[in-house]
Specification:
The chain has 493 residues and is an alpha/beta fold. 28% of the residues lie in helices and 28% in strands.
Length: 493
Protein backbone atom coordinates (compact mmCIF):
# COMPACT_ATOMS: atom_id res chain seq x y z
CA UNK A 1 0.00 0.00 0.00
CA UNK A 2 1.37 3.43 -0.84
CA UNK A 3 1.68 6.19 1.76
CA UNK A 4 -1.53 6.82 3.68
CA UNK A 5 -1.05 10.60 3.53
CA UNK A 6 0.88 11.39 0.33
CA UNK A 7 0.68 15.15 1.04
CA UNK A 8 2.69 14.81 4.25
CA UNK A 9 5.72 13.74 2.24
CA UNK A 10 6.19 17.05 0.42
CA UNK A 11 5.83 19.00 3.69
CA UNK A 12 4.42 22.07 1.97
CA UNK A 13 3.29 25.36 3.48
CA UNK A 14 -0.31 24.66 2.46
CA UNK A 15 -2.71 24.68 5.40
CA UNK A 16 -3.66 21.23 6.69
CA UNK A 17 -5.53 21.83 9.95
CA UNK A 18 -7.37 24.79 11.39
CA UNK A 19 -9.25 24.25 14.62
CA UNK A 20 -11.38 26.72 16.54
CA UNK A 21 -13.96 29.37 15.75
CA UNK A 22 -11.67 32.38 15.21
CA UNK A 23 -10.00 32.71 11.79
CA UNK A 24 -6.39 32.65 13.05
CA UNK A 25 -6.36 30.35 16.00
CA UNK A 26 -4.28 28.17 18.20
CA UNK A 27 -4.86 25.05 16.17
CA UNK A 28 -3.46 25.96 12.74
CA UNK A 29 -0.86 23.72 11.13
CA UNK A 30 0.56 23.58 7.60
CA UNK A 31 1.36 20.26 5.96
CA UNK A 32 5.03 20.88 6.75
CA UNK A 33 4.28 21.50 10.43
CA UNK A 34 1.89 18.58 10.64
CA UNK A 35 4.44 16.30 8.98
CA UNK A 36 7.21 17.20 11.46
CA UNK A 37 4.96 17.14 14.51
CA UNK A 38 3.25 13.87 13.66
CA UNK A 39 6.54 12.25 12.61
CA UNK A 40 8.17 13.17 15.89
CA UNK A 41 5.22 11.76 17.87
CA UNK A 42 5.16 8.67 15.63
CA UNK A 43 8.78 7.95 16.58
CA UNK A 44 7.84 8.08 20.27
CA UNK A 45 4.90 5.70 20.03
CA UNK A 46 6.38 3.28 17.49
CA UNK A 47 5.99 -0.32 18.63
CA UNK A 48 3.09 0.35 21.03
CA UNK A 49 0.34 -2.26 20.70
CA UNK A 50 -2.49 0.30 20.81
CA UNK A 51 -2.90 3.91 21.89
CA UNK A 52 -5.95 5.62 23.33
CA UNK A 53 -6.48 9.19 22.11
CA UNK A 54 -8.39 11.68 24.27
CA UNK A 55 -10.43 12.83 21.29
CA UNK A 56 -11.18 16.47 22.05
CA UNK A 57 -12.29 18.52 19.03
CA UNK A 58 -8.81 20.00 18.66
CA UNK A 59 -5.80 19.79 16.37
CA UNK A 60 -4.11 17.66 19.04
CA UNK A 61 -6.47 14.79 18.26
CA UNK A 62 -5.75 15.08 14.54
CA UNK A 63 -1.99 15.13 15.17
CA UNK A 64 -2.20 12.12 17.51
CA UNK A 65 -4.22 10.05 15.04
CA UNK A 66 -1.99 10.97 12.09
CA UNK A 67 1.09 10.06 14.16
CA UNK A 68 -0.40 6.68 15.06
CA UNK A 69 -1.22 5.97 11.43
CA UNK A 70 2.35 6.86 10.41
CA UNK A 71 3.68 4.54 13.12
CA UNK A 72 1.25 1.73 12.30
CA UNK A 73 -0.18 1.82 15.84
CA UNK A 74 -3.97 1.30 16.19
CA UNK A 75 -5.91 4.15 17.81
CA UNK A 76 -8.80 3.89 20.25
CA UNK A 77 -10.50 7.33 20.16
CA UNK A 78 -12.12 8.23 23.49
CA UNK A 79 -15.09 10.57 23.87
CA UNK A 80 -13.72 13.26 26.23
CA UNK A 81 -17.14 13.29 27.95
CA UNK A 82 -17.24 9.53 28.42
CA UNK A 83 -18.82 8.38 31.68
CA UNK A 84 -17.06 6.15 34.18
CA UNK A 85 -18.71 2.83 33.32
CA UNK A 86 -18.31 3.21 29.57
CA UNK A 87 -14.68 4.26 29.97
CA UNK A 88 -13.89 1.32 32.26
CA UNK A 89 -15.39 -1.04 29.68
CA UNK A 90 -13.44 0.45 26.75
CA UNK A 91 -10.15 0.37 28.66
CA UNK A 92 -10.60 -3.21 29.84
CA UNK A 93 -11.64 -4.33 26.37
CA UNK A 94 -9.05 -2.52 24.28
CA UNK A 95 -6.08 -2.49 26.70
CA UNK A 96 -4.27 0.53 25.27
CA UNK A 97 -0.57 0.79 26.09
CA UNK A 98 -0.53 4.58 26.16
CA UNK A 99 -2.77 7.63 26.35
CA UNK A 100 -2.22 10.52 23.95
CA UNK A 101 -3.73 13.78 25.18
CA UNK A 102 -3.07 17.50 25.28
CA UNK A 103 -0.98 18.81 28.16
CA UNK A 104 -4.00 20.82 29.36
CA UNK A 105 -6.40 17.89 29.31
CA UNK A 106 -7.49 16.36 32.58
CA UNK A 107 -8.77 12.88 31.80
CA UNK A 108 -10.59 11.03 34.60
CA UNK A 109 -8.91 8.95 37.27
CA UNK A 110 -9.55 5.69 35.40
CA UNK A 111 -6.87 6.76 32.91
CA UNK A 112 -4.33 7.69 35.56
CA UNK A 113 -2.75 4.24 35.47
CA UNK A 114 -1.94 4.53 31.78
CA UNK A 115 1.40 5.98 30.66
CA UNK A 116 0.64 9.33 29.06
CA UNK A 117 2.29 11.17 26.21
CA UNK A 118 1.31 14.78 25.62
CA UNK A 119 0.94 16.22 22.17
CA UNK A 120 3.25 19.19 22.70
CA UNK A 121 1.27 22.36 23.27
CA UNK A 122 1.94 25.82 24.61
CA UNK A 123 -1.02 27.88 25.80
CA UNK A 124 -3.26 25.59 23.81
CA UNK A 125 -1.24 25.93 20.56
CA UNK A 126 0.58 22.99 19.10
CA UNK A 127 4.32 23.48 19.07
CA UNK A 128 5.48 22.05 15.74
CA UNK A 129 8.51 19.81 16.08
CA UNK A 130 11.61 21.54 14.62
CA UNK A 131 12.64 18.55 12.58
CA UNK A 132 11.59 14.97 11.97
CA UNK A 133 11.15 13.10 8.74
CA UNK A 134 7.94 11.32 7.91
CA UNK A 135 8.46 7.58 8.25
CA UNK A 136 7.66 5.50 5.17
CA UNK A 137 4.38 3.81 6.07
CA UNK A 138 4.00 1.99 2.75
CA UNK A 139 5.30 -1.25 4.25
CA UNK A 140 2.70 -1.45 7.03
CA UNK A 141 0.21 -4.29 6.50
CA UNK A 142 -2.94 -2.73 5.01
CA UNK A 143 -5.02 -5.30 6.91
CA UNK A 144 -3.67 -4.12 10.27
CA UNK A 145 -6.10 -2.00 12.31
CA UNK A 146 -5.91 1.76 11.95
CA UNK A 147 -8.73 2.50 14.40
CA UNK A 148 -10.86 0.74 16.99
CA UNK A 149 -14.10 2.70 17.26
CA UNK A 150 -16.66 1.79 19.92
CA UNK A 151 -20.28 1.55 18.80
CA UNK A 152 -23.51 0.66 20.59
CA UNK A 153 -25.56 -2.46 19.90
CA UNK A 154 -29.04 -3.45 20.98
CA UNK A 155 -27.77 -5.14 24.12
CA UNK A 156 -24.63 -5.12 26.23
CA UNK A 157 -21.83 -2.57 26.31
CA UNK A 158 -20.46 -0.96 23.11
CA UNK A 159 -18.32 -3.13 20.81
CA UNK A 160 -14.91 -2.15 19.40
CA UNK A 161 -15.05 -2.00 15.60
CA UNK A 162 -11.68 -2.90 14.03
CA UNK A 163 -11.14 -0.65 11.01
CA UNK A 164 -8.15 -1.60 8.90
CA UNK A 165 -5.95 0.85 7.00
CA UNK A 166 -7.30 -0.77 3.84
CA UNK A 167 -10.94 -0.10 4.82
CA UNK A 168 -10.29 3.54 5.73
CA UNK A 169 -8.27 4.21 2.56
CA UNK A 170 -10.80 2.42 0.32
CA UNK A 171 -13.79 4.30 1.71
CA UNK A 172 -12.10 7.70 1.52
CA UNK A 173 -10.92 7.07 -2.04
CA UNK A 174 -14.40 5.94 -3.11
CA UNK A 175 -15.87 9.16 -1.69
CA UNK A 176 -13.20 11.20 -3.45
CA UNK A 177 -14.30 9.67 -6.74
CA UNK A 178 -18.01 10.19 -6.10
CA UNK A 179 -17.66 13.78 -4.91
CA UNK A 180 -14.66 14.93 -7.01
CA UNK A 181 -12.97 15.65 -3.66
CA UNK A 182 -9.47 17.10 -4.18
CA UNK A 183 -6.60 18.94 -2.52
CA UNK A 184 -8.34 22.20 -3.39
CA UNK A 185 -11.24 21.45 -1.05
CA UNK A 186 -11.54 23.11 2.35
CA UNK A 187 -13.82 21.05 4.57
CA UNK A 188 -15.77 22.85 7.29
CA UNK A 189 -17.32 20.86 10.11
CA UNK A 190 -17.96 20.63 13.83
CA UNK A 191 -18.38 16.90 14.29
CA UNK A 192 -17.05 15.03 17.32
CA UNK A 193 -13.76 13.23 16.67
CA UNK A 194 -14.60 9.92 18.37
CA UNK A 195 -16.99 8.69 15.64
CA UNK A 196 -16.13 7.73 12.08
CA UNK A 197 -18.08 10.65 10.60
CA UNK A 198 -15.95 13.37 12.18
CA UNK A 199 -12.66 11.48 12.47
CA UNK A 200 -12.44 9.35 9.33
CA UNK A 201 -14.43 11.44 6.86
CA UNK A 202 -13.88 14.79 8.53
CA UNK A 203 -10.16 14.65 9.39
CA UNK A 204 -8.46 11.74 7.63
CA UNK A 205 -10.46 12.47 4.46
CA UNK A 206 -9.10 15.95 3.74
CA UNK A 207 -5.60 15.00 4.90
CA UNK A 208 -5.49 12.01 2.54
CA UNK A 209 -6.49 14.32 -0.33
CA UNK A 210 -3.98 17.01 0.69
CA UNK A 211 -6.73 19.55 1.36
CA UNK A 212 -7.67 21.51 4.46
CA UNK A 213 -9.76 20.70 7.53
CA UNK A 214 -11.41 23.66 9.21
CA UNK A 215 -12.96 22.34 12.42
CA UNK A 216 -15.13 24.80 14.31
CA UNK A 217 -14.44 23.35 17.76
CA UNK A 218 -18.15 23.29 18.52
CA UNK A 219 -21.20 23.47 16.29
CA UNK A 220 -22.88 26.84 15.86
CA UNK A 221 -24.81 28.34 13.00
CA UNK A 222 -22.56 31.43 13.02
CA UNK A 223 -19.43 29.26 13.00
CA UNK A 224 -20.61 27.37 9.92
CA UNK A 225 -21.43 30.64 8.13
CA UNK A 226 -18.02 32.11 8.99
CA UNK A 227 -16.14 28.94 8.06
CA UNK A 228 -17.78 28.66 4.67
CA UNK A 229 -17.53 32.37 3.90
CA UNK A 230 -13.81 32.28 4.64
CA UNK A 231 -13.21 29.87 1.75
CA UNK A 232 -14.82 26.59 2.85
CA UNK A 233 -15.86 24.47 -0.12
CA UNK A 234 -17.56 21.54 1.66
CA UNK A 235 -19.66 21.12 4.78
CA UNK A 236 -20.19 17.80 6.58
CA UNK A 237 -22.86 17.47 9.25
CA UNK A 238 -25.47 15.30 10.90
CA UNK A 239 -29.16 16.08 10.24
CA UNK A 240 -29.53 17.88 13.59
CA UNK A 241 -26.96 20.41 12.38
CA UNK A 242 -28.72 20.90 9.04
CA UNK A 243 -32.04 21.24 10.89
CA UNK A 244 -30.57 24.04 13.00
CA UNK A 245 -29.10 25.70 9.89
CA UNK A 246 -32.48 25.43 8.15
CA UNK A 247 -34.18 27.03 11.17
CA UNK A 248 -31.76 29.96 11.02
CA UNK A 249 -31.92 30.60 7.27
CA UNK A 250 -34.81 33.02 7.11
CA UNK A 251 -33.47 36.49 7.79
CA UNK A 252 -29.80 35.46 7.89
CA UNK A 253 -28.39 36.65 4.57
CA UNK A 254 -24.82 35.77 5.54
CA UNK A 255 -25.79 32.16 6.23
CA UNK A 256 -27.73 31.90 2.97
CA UNK A 257 -24.72 33.25 1.02
CA UNK A 258 -22.34 30.92 2.86
CA UNK A 259 -24.36 27.77 2.14
CA UNK A 260 -25.07 28.84 -1.43
CA UNK A 261 -21.36 29.37 -2.02
CA UNK A 262 -20.23 25.93 -0.86
CA UNK A 263 -19.41 23.32 -3.49
CA UNK A 264 -20.86 20.42 -1.52
CA UNK A 265 -23.17 20.18 1.50
CA UNK A 266 -23.15 16.61 2.82
CA UNK A 267 -25.43 15.10 5.46
CA UNK A 268 -25.12 11.66 7.01
CA UNK A 269 -25.32 9.43 10.12
CA UNK A 270 -29.13 9.65 10.17
CA UNK A 271 -31.94 10.58 7.81
CA UNK A 272 -32.31 14.23 6.84
CA UNK A 273 -36.06 14.98 6.83
CA UNK A 274 -37.44 16.19 3.51
CA UNK A 275 -38.70 19.38 5.17
CA UNK A 276 -35.13 20.38 6.02
CA UNK A 277 -33.93 19.42 2.53
CA UNK A 278 -36.63 21.64 1.09
CA UNK A 279 -36.03 24.61 3.35
CA UNK A 280 -32.31 24.61 2.53
CA UNK A 281 -32.89 24.18 -1.20
CA UNK A 282 -35.53 26.94 -1.28
CA UNK A 283 -33.35 29.45 0.55
CA UNK A 284 -29.95 28.68 -1.00
CA UNK A 285 -30.61 26.92 -4.30
CA UNK A 286 -28.33 24.10 -3.07
CA UNK A 287 -29.37 20.52 -2.45
CA UNK A 288 -27.86 18.64 0.44
CA UNK A 289 -26.14 15.42 -0.63
CA UNK A 290 -26.95 12.44 1.61
CA UNK A 291 -24.62 9.53 2.06
CA UNK A 292 -25.24 6.35 4.04
CA UNK A 293 -22.66 4.70 6.22
CA UNK A 294 -22.00 2.86 9.41
CA UNK A 295 -19.09 2.51 11.80
CA UNK A 296 -18.63 -1.11 10.66
CA UNK A 297 -18.81 -0.38 6.94
CA UNK A 298 -17.64 3.20 6.63
CA UNK A 299 -19.45 4.60 3.60
CA UNK A 300 -21.78 2.48 1.48
CA UNK A 301 -23.83 4.74 -0.77
CA UNK A 302 -24.09 8.37 -1.72
CA UNK A 303 -26.30 10.65 -3.75
CA UNK A 304 -24.08 12.11 -6.46
CA UNK A 305 -23.74 15.91 -6.43
CA UNK A 306 -26.63 17.48 -8.29
CA UNK A 307 -28.87 14.47 -7.63
CA UNK A 308 -32.45 15.20 -6.64
CA UNK A 309 -33.08 14.62 -2.91
CA UNK A 310 -35.97 12.39 -1.94
CA UNK A 311 -36.72 11.52 1.70
CA UNK A 312 -34.69 8.56 2.87
CA UNK A 313 -32.92 8.28 -0.46
CA UNK A 314 -29.22 7.78 0.06
CA UNK A 315 -28.09 7.37 -3.55
CA UNK A 316 -26.35 4.46 -5.18
CA UNK A 317 -23.50 2.23 -3.95
CA UNK A 318 -20.06 3.82 -3.96
CA UNK A 319 -17.39 2.40 -6.26
CA UNK A 320 -16.23 -0.99 -4.93
CA UNK A 321 -19.29 -1.52 -2.69
CA UNK A 322 -21.70 -4.37 -3.47
CA UNK A 323 -25.15 -3.96 -1.96
CA UNK A 324 -28.08 -6.39 -1.83
CA UNK A 325 -31.45 -6.60 -0.11
CA UNK A 326 -32.35 -9.79 1.72
CA UNK A 327 -35.74 -10.83 3.09
CA UNK A 328 -36.61 -12.40 6.47
CA UNK A 329 -35.71 -15.95 5.43
CA UNK A 330 -32.40 -14.97 3.87
CA UNK A 331 -33.46 -14.90 0.20
CA UNK A 332 -31.85 -12.25 -1.95
CA UNK A 333 -34.40 -9.81 -3.39
CA UNK A 334 -33.92 -8.79 -6.99
CA UNK A 335 -36.61 -6.11 -7.15
CA UNK A 336 -35.95 -2.51 -8.13
CA UNK A 337 -39.58 -1.46 -7.66
CA UNK A 338 -39.46 1.09 -4.86
CA UNK A 339 -41.66 -1.24 -2.78
CA UNK A 340 -40.01 -4.52 -1.86
CA UNK A 341 -38.40 -4.09 1.55
CA UNK A 342 -35.33 -6.05 2.63
CA UNK A 343 -32.37 -5.79 4.94
CA UNK A 344 -29.37 -4.00 3.42
CA UNK A 345 -26.30 -6.23 3.20
CA UNK A 346 -22.99 -4.93 1.89
CA UNK A 347 -19.55 -6.21 0.99
CA UNK A 348 -16.43 -4.52 -0.26
CA UNK A 349 -13.01 -3.23 0.75
CA UNK A 350 -14.68 -0.62 3.00
CA UNK A 351 -15.80 -3.22 5.57
CA UNK A 352 -14.40 -3.59 9.09
CA UNK A 353 -12.36 -6.65 10.09
CA UNK A 354 -14.47 -7.71 13.10
CA UNK A 355 -15.41 -6.70 16.62
CA UNK A 356 -12.52 -6.68 19.08
CA UNK A 357 -12.65 -9.73 21.39
CA UNK A 358 -16.12 -10.66 20.08
CA UNK A 359 -15.81 -13.55 17.60
CA UNK A 360 -19.47 -14.61 18.09
CA UNK A 361 -20.76 -11.09 17.48
CA UNK A 362 -18.53 -10.83 14.41
CA UNK A 363 -19.78 -14.15 13.04
CA UNK A 364 -23.41 -13.16 13.67
CA UNK A 365 -22.92 -9.87 11.81
CA UNK A 366 -21.96 -11.60 8.55
CA UNK A 367 -23.68 -13.83 6.03
CA UNK A 368 -20.58 -15.18 4.28
CA UNK A 369 -18.70 -12.06 3.22
CA UNK A 370 -21.86 -9.93 3.32
CA UNK A 371 -22.31 -7.67 6.35
CA UNK A 372 -25.84 -7.45 7.74
CA UNK A 373 -26.43 -3.75 8.39
CA UNK A 374 -29.78 -4.08 10.20
CA UNK A 375 -31.09 -1.23 8.03
CA UNK A 376 -34.23 -1.88 5.97
CA UNK A 377 -34.52 -0.42 2.49
CA UNK A 378 -36.12 -0.56 -0.94
CA UNK A 379 -34.45 0.08 -4.30
CA UNK A 380 -35.88 2.41 -6.91
CA UNK A 381 -35.88 1.57 -10.60
CA UNK A 382 -32.82 3.80 -11.12
CA UNK A 383 -30.85 1.84 -8.51
CA UNK A 384 -31.05 4.39 -5.71
CA UNK A 385 -31.45 3.02 -2.22
CA UNK A 386 -34.22 4.34 0.04
CA UNK A 387 -33.88 3.54 3.73
CA UNK A 388 -37.23 2.81 5.34
CA UNK A 389 -36.33 1.77 8.87
CA UNK A 390 -34.22 -0.43 11.07
CA UNK A 391 -34.58 -4.07 12.04
CA UNK A 392 -33.94 -3.44 15.72
CA UNK A 393 -36.30 -1.13 17.57
CA UNK A 394 -33.86 -1.05 20.47
CA UNK A 395 -31.38 1.10 18.56
CA UNK A 396 -31.92 4.84 18.81
CA UNK A 397 -30.29 7.51 16.62
CA UNK A 398 -30.29 10.80 18.50
CA UNK A 399 -28.39 13.78 17.10
CA UNK A 400 -26.62 11.29 14.80
CA UNK A 401 -25.29 9.21 17.73
CA UNK A 402 -26.28 5.53 17.81
CA UNK A 403 -27.45 4.50 21.27
CA UNK A 404 -28.62 1.09 22.49
CA UNK A 405 -31.76 1.06 24.66
CA UNK A 406 -30.29 -1.77 26.76
CA UNK A 407 -27.23 0.10 27.95
CA UNK A 408 -29.41 3.01 29.15
CA UNK A 409 -31.88 0.66 30.85
CA UNK A 410 -29.01 -1.00 32.74
CA UNK A 411 -27.66 2.39 33.81
CA UNK A 412 -31.11 3.51 35.00
CA UNK A 413 -31.57 0.29 36.98
CA UNK A 414 -28.39 1.14 38.89
CA UNK A 415 -30.08 4.23 40.32
CA UNK A 416 -31.46 3.42 43.79
CA UNK A 417 -34.71 5.24 43.01
CA UNK A 418 -35.47 3.05 39.98
CA UNK A 419 -37.20 -0.32 40.28
CA UNK A 420 -37.89 -1.00 36.59
CA UNK A 421 -36.88 0.83 33.44
CA UNK A 422 -37.52 0.69 29.71
CA UNK A 423 -36.06 3.00 27.08
CA UNK A 424 -37.52 3.95 23.71
CA UNK A 425 -36.83 6.48 20.97
CA UNK A 426 -39.50 8.97 19.95
CA UNK A 427 -39.48 11.27 16.93
CA UNK A 428 -37.88 14.65 17.62
CA UNK A 429 -37.69 17.48 15.09
CA UNK A 430 -34.20 18.53 16.22
CA UNK A 431 -32.52 15.27 17.29
CA UNK A 432 -34.30 12.91 14.88
CA UNK A 433 -35.08 10.66 17.82
CA UNK A 434 -35.24 11.59 21.49
CA UNK A 435 -34.38 9.10 24.25
CA UNK A 436 -37.40 8.47 26.48
CA UNK A 437 -37.05 6.60 29.78
CA UNK A 438 -40.07 4.80 31.25
CA UNK A 439 -39.45 4.36 34.94
CA UNK A 440 -41.18 2.50 37.75
CA UNK A 441 -39.87 4.26 40.86
CA UNK A 442 -38.71 2.24 43.87
CA UNK A 443 -40.83 4.56 46.02
CA UNK A 444 -43.89 5.89 44.22
CA UNK A 445 -44.14 8.74 46.71
CA UNK A 446 -40.59 9.96 45.95
CA UNK A 447 -39.69 9.26 42.30
CA UNK A 448 -36.21 10.44 41.23
CA UNK A 449 -36.39 13.61 39.11
CA UNK A 450 -35.77 13.64 35.37
CA UNK A 451 -32.65 15.81 35.66
CA UNK A 452 -31.24 13.52 38.34
CA UNK A 453 -31.72 10.46 36.13
CA UNK A 454 -30.23 12.30 33.13
CA UNK A 455 -27.13 13.22 35.18
CA UNK A 456 -26.87 9.66 36.43
CA UNK A 457 -26.83 8.22 32.89
CA UNK A 458 -24.51 10.98 31.60
CA UNK A 459 -22.05 10.21 34.41
CA UNK A 460 -22.01 6.46 33.80
CA UNK A 461 -22.19 6.40 29.98
CA UNK A 462 -22.01 9.74 28.13
CA UNK A 463 -24.09 12.95 28.03
CA UNK A 464 -25.56 12.16 24.60
CA UNK A 465 -26.99 8.93 26.06
CA UNK A 466 -29.01 10.71 28.74
CA UNK A 467 -32.82 10.50 28.61
CA UNK A 468 -34.39 13.73 27.40
CA UNK A 469 -37.82 12.76 28.75
CA UNK A 470 -38.71 10.61 31.76
CA UNK A 471 -42.19 9.12 32.18
CA UNK A 472 -43.32 7.37 35.34
CA UNK A 473 -45.48 4.25 35.47
CA UNK A 474 -46.78 1.96 38.22
CA UNK A 475 -45.61 -1.10 36.25
CA UNK A 476 -44.11 -1.84 32.84
CA UNK A 477 -46.30 -3.81 30.42
CA UNK A 478 -44.85 -7.35 30.20
CA UNK A 479 -45.76 -10.57 28.42
CA UNK A 480 -46.24 -13.94 30.17
CA UNK A 481 -42.48 -14.54 30.08
CA UNK A 482 -41.82 -11.22 31.79
CA UNK A 483 -40.40 -9.50 28.70
CA UNK A 484 -41.21 -5.79 28.49
CA UNK A 485 -43.70 -5.02 25.73
CA UNK A 486 -42.40 -1.68 24.50
CA UNK A 487 -45.11 -1.43 21.88
CA UNK A 488 -47.71 -1.46 24.69
CA UNK A 489 -46.23 1.61 26.41
CA UNK A 490 -48.78 4.42 26.47
CA UNK A 491 -48.54 6.83 23.51
CA UNK A 492 -46.92 10.22 24.17
CA UNK A 493 -49.06 13.18 25.16
C1 LIG B 1 -26.04 18.33 28.87
N1 LIG B 1 -24.74 18.22 28.92
C2 LIG B 1 -24.44 17.44 29.93
C3 LIG B 1 -25.66 17.01 30.52
N2 LIG B 1 -26.61 17.59 29.83
N3 LIG B 1 -23.29 17.02 30.43
C4 LIG B 1 -23.32 16.22 31.51
N4 LIG B 1 -24.44 15.79 32.11
C5 LIG B 1 -25.63 16.17 31.65
N5 LIG B 1 -26.72 15.77 32.27
C6 LIG B 1 -23.81 18.97 28.05
C7 LIG B 1 -23.21 18.28 26.88
O1 LIG B 1 -22.06 17.60 27.21
C8 LIG B 1 -22.95 19.45 25.94
O2 LIG B 1 -21.88 20.26 26.33
C9 LIG B 1 -24.15 20.23 26.11
O3 LIG B 1 -24.60 19.97 27.43
C10 LIG B 1 -25.21 19.88 25.09
O4 LIG B 1 -25.18 18.48 24.87
P1 LIG B 1 -26.18 17.77 23.96
O5 LIG B 1 -27.53 17.95 24.52
O6 LIG B 1 -25.72 16.40 23.69
O7 LIG B 1 -26.01 18.58 22.67
P2 LIG B 1 -26.97 18.60 21.52
O8 LIG B 1 -27.58 19.93 21.44
O9 LIG B 1 -27.88 17.46 21.59
O10 LIG B 1 -25.96 18.36 20.33
C11 LIG B 1 -26.40 18.27 19.06
C12 LIG B 1 -25.22 17.88 18.17
C13 LIG B 1 -24.56 16.61 18.71
C14 LIG B 1 -25.79 17.66 16.78
C15 LIG B 1 -24.21 19.03 18.10
O11 LIG B 1 -25.56 15.64 18.98
C16 LIG B 1 -23.51 16.04 17.80
O12 LIG B 1 -22.38 16.53 17.77
N6 LIG B 1 -23.84 14.97 17.05
C17 LIG B 1 -22.93 14.30 16.11
C18 LIG B 1 -22.97 12.83 16.28
C19 LIG B 1 -22.05 12.11 15.28
O13 LIG B 1 -20.96 12.57 15.00
N7 LIG B 1 -22.48 10.96 14.79
C20 LIG B 1 -21.73 10.19 13.82
C21 LIG B 1 -21.74 8.73 14.18
S1 LIG B 1 -20.86 7.79 12.91
P3 LIG B 1 -21.22 21.32 25.34
O14 LIG B 1 -20.10 21.90 26.14
O15 LIG B 1 -20.79 20.53 24.17
O16 LIG B 1 -22.28 22.30 25.00
C22 LIG B 1 -22.10 7.22 11.92
C23 LIG B 1 -21.75 6.62 10.60
C24 LIG B 1 -22.13 7.59 9.55
O17 LIG B 1 -23.23 7.38 12.20
O18 LIG B 1 -22.86 7.22 8.63
O19 LIG B 1 -21.70 8.73 9.69
P1 LIG C 1 -23.34 4.11 13.57
O1 LIG C 1 -23.52 2.74 14.04
O2 LIG C 1 -23.30 5.15 14.63
O3 LIG C 1 -22.18 4.15 12.68
O4 LIG C 1 -24.64 4.44 12.73
C1 LIG C 1 -24.91 3.77 11.53
C2 LIG C 1 -26.35 3.90 11.20
O5 LIG C 1 -26.70 5.26 10.93
C3 LIG C 1 -26.75 3.18 9.96
O6 LIG C 1 -26.92 1.79 10.19
C4 LIG C 1 -28.05 3.89 9.59
O7 LIG C 1 -29.13 3.38 10.34
C5 LIG C 1 -27.77 5.31 10.04
N1 LIG C 1 -27.44 6.20 8.91
C6 LIG C 1 -26.24 6.59 8.47
N2 LIG C 1 -26.35 7.43 7.42
C7 LIG C 1 -27.68 7.57 7.19
C8 LIG C 1 -28.46 8.31 6.25
N3 LIG C 1 -27.90 9.11 5.33
N4 LIG C 1 -29.81 8.20 6.31
C9 LIG C 1 -30.39 7.42 7.25
N5 LIG C 1 -29.71 6.71 8.16
C10 LIG C 1 -28.37 6.78 8.14
Amino acid sequence: MSAFFPALRDGSARPALRFGAAPATAGTLTYGELARTAASLAARIAGARRVAVWATPTARTAVAVVAALLAGVPVVPLNPRVGERELAHILADSEPALLLAGAEDEPPAALAGLPRLDVETEGGSIVPAPEASVPGDGGIDPESPALIVYTSGTTGPPKGVLLSRRAVAASLDALAGAWAWTADDVLVHALPLFHVHGLVLGVLGPLRRGGEVRHLGAFSVEGVARGLEAGGTMLFGVPTMYHRLADALSGDGALVRALAGARLLVSGSAALPVHDHERIAAATGRTVVERYGMTETLMNTSVRPGGRPRPGTVGTPLPGVDLRLVDEDGSVLGAYDGETVGEVQVRGPNLFSGYLNRPEATAAAFDGDWFRTGDMAVRESDGTVRLVGRKATDLIKSGGHKIGAGEIENALLDHPGVREAAVTGEPDPDLGERIVAWVVPADAARPPGGAELADHVAGLLAPHKRPRTVRYLDALPRNDLGKVLKKALPPAG
